[in-house]
Structures are given as C-alpha cells and as structure tokens.
Design a protein that fits this description.
Elements lengths: L9 E5 L4 H12 L3 E6 L4 H8 L3 E4 L3 H5 L7 E4 L8 H8 L4 E3 H9 L3 E6 L4 H14 L5 E3 L11 E2 L5 E5 L14 E4 L7 H4 L2 H12 L7 E5 L3 H12 L3 E6 L5 E9 L2 E8 L2 E7 L4 H16 L4 H9 L9 E6 L2 E6 L4 H15 L4 E5 L4 H15 L4 E4 L16 H4 L5 E4 L3 H11 L5 E5 L7 H11 L1
Parallel strand pairs: 1-2, 1-4, 2-3, 4-5, 6-9, 6-10, 7-9, 10-11, 11-12, 12-13, 17-21, 18-19, 18-21, 19-20
Antiparallel strand pairs: 7-8, 13-14, 14-15, 16-17
Helix pairs in contact: 1-5, 6-10, 6-11, 8-9, 10-11, 12-13, 15-16
EC number: 6.3.2.8
Pathway: Cell wall biogenesis; peptidoglycan biosynthesis
Catalytic activity: UDP-N-acetyl-alpha-D-muramate + L-alanine + ATP = UDP-N-acetyl-alpha-D-muramoyl-L-alanine + ADP + phosphate + H(+)
Length: 462
C-alpha cells in the first residue's frame, strides 16, 4: 500500500457528494485514510461513502468541523465552494490547511504512472474507455472520473497496477496541478469563459498543461481538431513526443466509421497495420475517443489486441446517452451534453440511434454566461432534432443575469421548438410530443436528468 501524503490522512471534504470529491473520498478510504465530509443533501454518493466508513454530515456548518474527534489534517474544497462557506471559514480560523480538490488528487497520484485526459469535450468518455480497457487487460489502474462507469457504477478506484488514470478538468485551470506521463487532449474549443475570460486565455491554459508532461512523456492529440493539432506541434517543438489520431493523422489514421443503432465500428491504420475497433456507444465522436484511449493504453503497456477487446466491452458512462427506459415504442435517454459542439455531435449520433423515428430533445441550458455567449450556436445544434423543448437556465454557481433565459436559445431554433420555463410542465409536454418509434433525450448538465423517469411515467399513462 502506498503511503498517503501526511495532509490527507485525516481529510474533511466539503461538498463530498459531488462527482470529483466523492471519487477522491473513495480512493482515500481505500488507502486507509480517515475521511469526513459534508454536503447540502443526502445522495447515493453519501450512502456509499458512509457504508465505506466515512463520517458524513448533511448540511454545512462550522460545528461539523469541531464535532470531529480530531481536527482534520486538511480540508478539501472545489472551486464551487465559496470563501463564505461556514466549514471553510471555520477551517481557516482554526489554521487547518485547505487544499483544492486537484491538489488532493495530485497527492493521490504520487508513486504512479499518470495518464490525464483533457479537452473541451469527451474527457469523461475517453477516461472511462481507457479505464475499462486497461481493466480488461488486467492492469488494475487507479482512476478518478467525472462520471460513474456503467460496468462498476463507480467513479473512482484505488488499483494496484501502478497506473493512475484521471480526467483533467480545465474549467478552472486546476489541471495544472498534475504532472502526467501520458496526456490526451481531445479538442480545444472556447468554454468556461466565466473563469478564463477570453478564448485566448482558455487556449493558453492547455499550452501550460502540456508543459506539465514529465520528461520522456507522451502527448496524444486529435489531428482533426485544429487547436489540438496546433498544440501538438507546439509540444513537438519543445521536445515532447506527440502521437496524433483522426482522419487526417499519420500515427492512428481513421479510414472509415460505420455507424449502427447500438454503436459503430471504426477502422484505422495504426503504425502501418489495419485495426478495427467496435464501440458500443453511438457517434463518430465516441469512436475518436476510443482511438485516443487505444493510443494511451498502448503507451501504458497494454497490448493492442487486449485494448481493442476492452474498448468493445465498454458499456458507457452514466448521463452519457444513458438509456432510461422504454414506454410502448418510445425510448428515453439522458445525456450530459452542455456545450454547442457536444449537443450537435450527440444529436447526430442520436439520429442514427433513432432509425426511422423522430428525435425529441429536452434541453436545459447550463450557466447564464454560457447561454449568453453561445445562444446562436446552441440553437443551431438543437435544430438537428425534430422537436425541441428548451427549459430555463440552470444557473449552478452563477447568479441570474437579466434578460438571459432559455428563450435566447429557443427564439433562434429553426426546428419545431417549445420554450417551457416551468420545469414541472416539461415531462408532460415532451411525452405529448412523442409518437410511436420516436426517441426522446433529456440533455444538459443540470437537474434535467430528473425528467427521464417522469417522461416515461407520462408516456405510460398514455
């Protein structure tokens, strides 16, 4: 068992139920740490962590810190935790060290060969594909992912294989804490401008991330994405080894992609040898993610044949085109897409999965800043569907902005569109639009995920 960094031996995690924080807690518990934490409400993540021995509080209060039998060696927070949080304020007043989530994760990476998956889109899926394929090759990687694997239902694991696979989040620049030996950049497209300010600053943070690759390490980039390809060229000039994948690549050149309702097959030329990879999730963008994972796995010592078999066994990630159920002849899915490029790519894949049926999307914009900046792009992407229901903005960490609502997007959609600001009306509205053979997908990074079961219930009534 690897030694834990001293500051993580008694860690208190604020917002422990979140995807990133719960993963860190899971690994800490597996490595023998005393873990405590709090979250605003009870959740499946809290139930699981409590069963593993974590001391948890529902609700956040300064008294939670003093209620612990011993003071924490560190309090761990994410960017979402404000300085006014009572537990954070209590920790600072008591002189307890405060670590960002990324710093805690970097501490857990010590002693491993680290693979970090970055990019504006596709991070979670690519990280998950790599993890599942490495597990298939019996390399037992440790991993931390921003979503739950369908195979295990887990978002993190402490493995004994000496490899650590992690999703590297660029949204707040915290991935600059990591020092990977293998880095993947799937694409670079302006996002999270509420933090970075400008598209140029957003792109620059990826350049800084690449500079974190350890000597002798490898950068894997998608040659079909101009910004990622340019990042590869910059890295090569600095002496970093670079491998490219995609239709315009030379290292792993995609020759063909054949879609199917239950996924697709990508045919590629890998170092002069033709290889076919079956992917059980739809969309050419997912096939490209699989090729990125294949290159990363090979670099980490996995055999090509084993990686191909493992990628074929990948069953997806929760909230990434996740099947929620069927009512009559209508299928309902849920997806996390929340950027225009993601929405467009996923709807193209959904179109294939729908076959002769229509595509109905229930979309919830995420963040006022993103909605304001990309309203036209969202409208263009959503217009790929047959029926569009646009909800109001899920603000998350942001305060409402006057004049910024879902109507900004809905007013520019060219398909049949319905702007519905009343959340409780969305499920019956979507169910009423559906006809036999149609496919309904709820889409967005907020609480729109709750609507899938409600839509199925409404369909059952009919």
């Amino acid at each position: 068992m690897l030694e834990l960094p001293e500051e993580l031996r008694r860690a208190h995690l604020i917002g422990i139920g979140g995807a990133g924080m719960s993963g860190i807690a899971r690994i800490l518990l597996a490595r023998g740490a005393f873990v405590s934490g709090s979250d605003a409400k009870e959740s499946r993540a809290l139930l699981s962590l409590r069963a593993q021995g974590a001391e948890l509080f529902v609700g956040q209060a300064a008294a939670n810190i003093s209620a612990l039998s011993e003071p924490p060696s560190a309090v761990v927070v994410s960017t979402a935790i404000k300085e006014t949080n009572p537990e954070l304020a209590a920790a600072r007043a008591a002189g307890i060290p405060v670590l960002h989530r990324a710093q805690a994760l970097a501490g857990l990476m010590e002693g491993h060969r680290v693979a970090c998956i970055a990019g504006t889109h596709g991070k979670t899926s690519t990280t998950s594909m790599l993890t599942v394929a490495l597990q298939h090759c019996r390399l037992d990687p440790s991993f931390a992912i921003g979503g739950d694997l369908n195979e295990s239902g887990a978002n993190a694991h402490h493995g004994e294989g000496g490899v650590f696979v992690a999703e590297a989040d660029e949204s707040d620049g915290s991935f600059l804490t990591y020092s990977p030996s293998v880095a993947v950049v799937t694409n670079v497209e302006p996002d999270h401008l509420d933090h970075h300010g400008t598209a140029e600053a957003y792109t620059k943070v990826f350049t800084e991330f690449v500079s974190r690759i350890v000597p002798g390490g490898l950068l894997i980039v998608c040659a079909d994405d101009a910004a990622a390809d340019e990042l590869g060229s910059q890295a090569a000039e600095l002496g970093v080894r670079v491998r490219r994948y995609g239709r315009t690549a030379t290292d792993a050149r995609v020759l063909d992609y054949v879609p199917a309702p239950d996924g697709g097959v990508v045919r590629l030329e890998l170092d002069g040898t033709e290889v076919s990879v079956r992917v059980a999730v739809p969309g050419e963008h997912m096939a490209l993610n699989a090729v990125a994972a294949l290159l990363a796995g090979i670099e980490l010592g996995a055999p090509v044949e084993g990686m191909v078999e493992g990628l074929a066994a990948f069953g997806g990630v929760r909230r990434r085109f996740e099947f929620k159920g069927r009512a009559g002849d209508v299928r309902v899915y849920d997806d996390y897409a929340h950027h225009p490029t993601e929405v467009a790519a996923q709807l193209r894949a959904v179109r294939t999965a729908a076959g002769s049926g229509r595509v109905i999307v229930v979309f919830q914009p995420h963040l006022y800043s993103r909605t304001k900046t990309f309203s036209a792009e969202f409208a263009s992407a959503l217009s790929l569907a047959d029926e569009v229901v646009v909800l109001d903005v899920y603000g998350a960490r942001e305060e409402p902005e006057p004049g910024v609502t879902g109507a900004l997007i809905a007013d520019q959609v060219t398909a049949s569109v319905h702007y519905e600001p009343a959340f409780d009306v969305a499920a019956p509205l979507a169910a009423g639009l559906a006809k036999p053979g149609d496919l309904v997908v709820t889409m967005g990074a907020g609480d729109v995920t709750q609507l899938g079961p409600e839509i199925l219930a409404e369909l059952d009534k009919r």
